[in-house]
Design goal:
Layout (H helix, E strand, L loop, with lengths): L1 H18 L3 H28 L5 H20 L4 H6 L4 H10 L1 H20 L5 H10 L9 H34 L1
Helix pairs in contact: 1-2, 1-6, 2-8, 3-7
This protein binds fe (ii) ion.
Fe (ii) ion (FE2) binds next to helix 1 and helix 2.
Length: 179
């Protein structure tokens, strides 16, 4: 659950960080991601040491839970309640949403964050591997998690560097005002 929810958070914030037209919205999400990315690193370290101590049965149960959670994550953003309230055909709208470029990008970003961590913490038995194969997301296991985390950190620092620039512009403007 830790891996899935932190991954979901990162994927959601990333959409705003990378695509927001508003610089402040992008910066705030870059900072949040810098922090979230550390949560993922923490979970990864803690769980990697934990799972080898469990029995096979206990690991199997967790794999089943995880796979179900991944299906739910994939399918839950259909906003059916919204379409119903607006009087639109929920099934058609959900289908349109699912196939939209935005949702494709979101799912890819989501599983880029989840799948390699699942492999890394050793929850990588038949249930998960076959399940991810069926879902078509097993390829994300090759993602370099450390590189992603480093990029989250670098992007946040770049935003921070621009904040200094903004502060200097404000300062100059204030000097002009008092001059
Ligand atoms: Fe978090």
């Amino acid at each position: 659950m830790q891996v899935v929810i932190e991954g979901l958070a990162l994927a959601a914030f990333q959409q705003i960080r990378d695509h927001a037209q508003n610089p402040l919205a992008a910066a705030v999400n870059a900072y949040v991601m810098q922090d979230e990315s550390r949560h993922v690193a923490f979970g990864r370290l803690a769980l990697r040491d934990f799972y080898p101590h469990l029995t096979q049965k206990e690991r199997d149960e967790r794999e089943e839970f995880l796979l179900e959670a991944c299906y739910l994550m994939r399918d839950r953003f259909d906003a059916v309640e919204v379409w119903k309230t607006l009087g639109l055909d929920p099934a058609r709208c959900a289908e349109h949403m699912y196939d939209s470029g935005f949702m494709e990008m979101f799912r890819s970003s989501l599983f880029t964050r989840i799948v390699p961590i699942v492999k890394d913490i050793g929850l990588w038995g038949d249930t998960i591997r076959n399940g991810y194969e069926t879902m078509g997301i097993i390829g994300f296991a090759q993602t370099d998690v450390q590189a992603l985390q480093d990029a989250d950190d670098t992007i946040a620092k770049e935003h921070d560097a621009r904040r200094d620039y903004v502060a200097s512009v404000i300062q100059r403007a204030q000097k002009l005002e008092t001059a």
